[in-house]
């Protein structure tokens, strides 16, 4: 059923179930016609062939689908693709520097901060976004003094800020160590 404005009549063959849009993903423009109900996660994986972003719970609870939207971390399973016009989306595939890894990816490898690896792309994107939040001085619920311009990124602060990303394998100790290394650079 197509939603129709009050007082108007639906037209046979109405195409308002799709939207033509340009998505900016990892520095590239993609012209697409997407179903208005399609999530950003599904468009990234199915239409753009970017399998790094994972579908975990599909309810915004696990963080496996975390990407950066204009630099802010978001659960791509909760965002409609048609709603991200004029925004810059960065997936784990877009974090690498040339042929090398992003420093967060390097730290994850160095600290063995992954086991099965399913949550890793979302964890990595979340760390990148979280480090930007810290650099901007954004407090968390654990920040002792919100009037300070800088945030002390200790283990408790890292765990709180990463609490939206779950790891079924339990690699949290190594994830925290990887974040501490990158934050100390």
Automatic annotation (TrEMBL):
Keywords from the UniProt entry:
Iron, Metal-binding, Oxidoreductase
Question: Can you give the residue ranges of the 2Fe-2S ferredoxin-type domain?
Answer: 19-95
CDD domains xref list: fer2 (cd00207)
PANTHER family documented for this protein: OXIDOREDUCTASE WITH IRON-SULFUR SUBUNIT (PTHR45331:SF2), OXIDOREDUCTASE, IRON-SULPHUR BINDING SUBUNIT-RELATED-RELATED (PTHR45331)
Q: What is this protein called?
A: 2Fe-2S iron-sulfur cluster-binding protein
């Amino acid at each position: 059923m197509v939603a129709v404005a009050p007082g108007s009549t639906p037209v046979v063959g109405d195409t308002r179930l799709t939207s033509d849009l340009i998505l900016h993903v990892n520095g590239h423009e993609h012209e697409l016609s997407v179903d208005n109900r399609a999530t950003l996660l599904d468009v990234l994986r199915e239409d753009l062939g970017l399998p790094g972003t994972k579908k975990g719970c599909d309810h915004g609870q696990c963080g496996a689908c975390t990407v950066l939207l204009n630099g802010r971390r978001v659960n791509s399973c909760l965002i409609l693709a048609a709603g991200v016009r004029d925004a810059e989306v960065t997936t784990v595939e877009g974090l690498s520097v040339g042929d090398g890894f992003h420093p967060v990816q390097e730290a994850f490898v160095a600290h063995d901060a992954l086991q099965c690896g399913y949550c890793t792309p979302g964890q990595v994107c979340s760390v990148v976004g979280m480090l930007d939040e810290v650099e901007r001085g954004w407090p968390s619920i654990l920040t002792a003094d919100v009037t300070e311009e800088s945030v002390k990124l200790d283990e408790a602060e890292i765990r709180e800020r990463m609490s939206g990303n779950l790891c079924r394998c339990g690699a949290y100790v190594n994830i925290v160590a990887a974040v501490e290394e990158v934050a100390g650079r």
